[in-house]
């Protein structure tokens, strides 16, 4: 594609102005889309993966089956490969691209229809430069033109961060039914990283309602869903019955707050993207890599104090002080960030009909989840719902694969059944951001009119 792509080089930072945007857009539109696609299919390079022998998800299942001291049921996705960010390539900005690779690895392994269309029918996961080019091709086809504007129609060869929007755009361009869910605490201040408006990347002022609310719907315009069976559990729907939505300016207490669902309205929307002080590095990625390296050191076979060190590290990781999903990121938590509605949705998602039980583990037939919050993204491969021995309190733990961790570190911990929990599990205490987004893929390939409708991104939003 090098001789085809004549777009002017632009800095890695998003939003360089309408002049740059227009030049890049015109340069892309001058390309012969058919030739560009054909050349990319022929030249894309398979992403390097660590040869681990036994599939990673098989190792994880084995660890979950041998847990002691708790009564639990686990819902687990199928085959998923872990793709790590590498220090010299993408550590600090590539987590979103790596999660696309992880989600795609499931589709290639589980769905023959997806294998025929994904990445031009290549049958393998391409590297980040190739996926960047696939995203530009999606823009040229008319998918998510607002997202293209946000990135000035140029992402190939850059270190720009991406999110759920770009994941859905790439997958939808192949006809895959990628869906976006948004979970938000309605009472939270938005300065910590709120909803992005159409093509916007600004930070909202605390308590301020701006144009982004015209897109997402002001709270006073939302209606509580009395029936939304395809997205809500029966328990959640029952809690919403006979409730009235808050009117503009009302002070709704935590006790009075109820789930509000804004169904998919087929509007073109944009969602959370990372926006730290330094747009060219994800500090959460860097800190997670340090944690992974430290954990690997603690669990070496020749470390005489490995048991005591592991106990100390576990206590640190479960103390409730960790930020942004278990890592030591730089994003301050919002207060009162209880995302039980979200974990209930994730539980119901993986427990959907069509799976099968193996001991206490439900082997789901649903795809993994691209898991996004402000500053970082991971891949959710399952969820554990458990009760500790002697306790009646139910606890939810997300099972995640983090691109910022080394594959060998995760595999080594799973093989030894030691230290794997702090690398893979994320408890409710770690869900301390005000907003999260998920991207998943429904089975089947869209055709004709449905394919055209996928060009406009939309989401189902949960406010609570």
UniProtKB/TrEMBL annotation:
Start and end residues of each UFSP1/2/DUB catalytic domain: 70-188, 337-439
Chain intervals for the UniProt region annotation (Disordered): 1-24, 191-210, 228-256, 299-326
GO molecular function: ubiquitin-like protein peptidase activity
GN (gene name): LOC112273410
Alphabetical list of PANTHER family matching this protein: UBIQUITIN CARBOXYL-TERMINAL HYDROLASE MUG105, UFM1-SPECIFIC PROTEASE 2
Residue ranges with Acidic residues bias: 232-242
UniProt KW keywords: Hydrolase
Annotated protein name in UniProt: UFSP1/2/DUB catalytic domain-containing protein
Stretches with biased composition (Polar residues): 306-321
């Amino acid at each position: 594609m090098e001789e085809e792509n004549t777009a002017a080089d632009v800095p890695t930072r998003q939003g360089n102005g309408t002049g740059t945007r227009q030049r890049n857009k015109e340069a892309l539109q001058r390309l012969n889309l058919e030739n560009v696609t054909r050349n990319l299919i022929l030249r894309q390079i398979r992403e390097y993966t660590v040869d681990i022998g036994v599939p990673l998800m098989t190792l994880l299942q084995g660890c979950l089956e041998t847990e002691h001291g708790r009564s639990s049921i686990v819902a687990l996705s199928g085959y998923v490969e872990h793709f790590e960010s590498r220090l010299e390539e993408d550590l600090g900005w590539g987590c979103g691209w790596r999660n696309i690779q992880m989600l795609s690895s499931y589709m290639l392994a589980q769905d023959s229809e997806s294998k025929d269309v994904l990445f031009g029918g290549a049958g393998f996961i391409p590297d980040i430069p190739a996926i960047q080019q696939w995203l530009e091709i999606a823009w040229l086809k008319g998918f998510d033109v607002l997202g293209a504007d946000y990135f000035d129609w140029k992402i190939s060869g850059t270190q720009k961060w991406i999110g759920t929007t770009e994941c859905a755009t790439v997958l939808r361009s192949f006809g895959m039914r990628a869906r976006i869910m948004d979970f938000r605490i309605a009472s939270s201040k938005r300065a910590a990283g709120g909803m992005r408006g159409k093509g916007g990347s600004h930070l909202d002022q605390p308590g301020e309602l701006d144009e982004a609310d015209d897109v997402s719907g002001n709270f006073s315009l939302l209606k509580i869903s009395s029936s939304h069976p395809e997205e809500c559990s029966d328990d959640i729907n029952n809690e919403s019955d006979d409730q009235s939505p808050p009117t503009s300016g009302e002070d709704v207490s935590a006790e009075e707050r109820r789930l509000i669902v804004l169904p998919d309205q087929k509007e073109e929307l944009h969602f959370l993207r990372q926006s730290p002080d330094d747009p060219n590095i994800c500090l959460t990625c860097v800190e997670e890599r340090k944690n992974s390296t430290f954990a690997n050191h603690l669990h070496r076979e020749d470390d005489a104090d490995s048991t005591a060190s592991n106990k100390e590290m576990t206590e640190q990781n479960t103390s409730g002080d960790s930020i942004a999903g278990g890592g030591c990121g730089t994003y301050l938590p919002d207060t009162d960030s209880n995302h039980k509605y979200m974990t209930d949705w994730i539980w119901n998602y993986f427990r959907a009909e069509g799976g099968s039980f193996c001991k206490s583990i439900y082997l789901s037939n649903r795809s993994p989840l691209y898991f996004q919050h402000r500053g970082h993204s991971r891949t959710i491969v399952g969820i554990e719902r458990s009760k500790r021995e002697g306790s009646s309190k139910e606890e939810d733990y997300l099972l995640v694969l983090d691109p910022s961790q080394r594959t060998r570190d995760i595999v080594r911990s799973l093989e030894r059944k030691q230290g794997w929990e702090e690398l893979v599990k994320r408890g409710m205490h770690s869900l301390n951001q005000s907003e999260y987004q998920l991207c998943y893929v429904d089975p089947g390939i869209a055709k004709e009119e449905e394919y055209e409708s996928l060009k406009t991104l939309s989401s189902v939003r949960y406010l609570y």
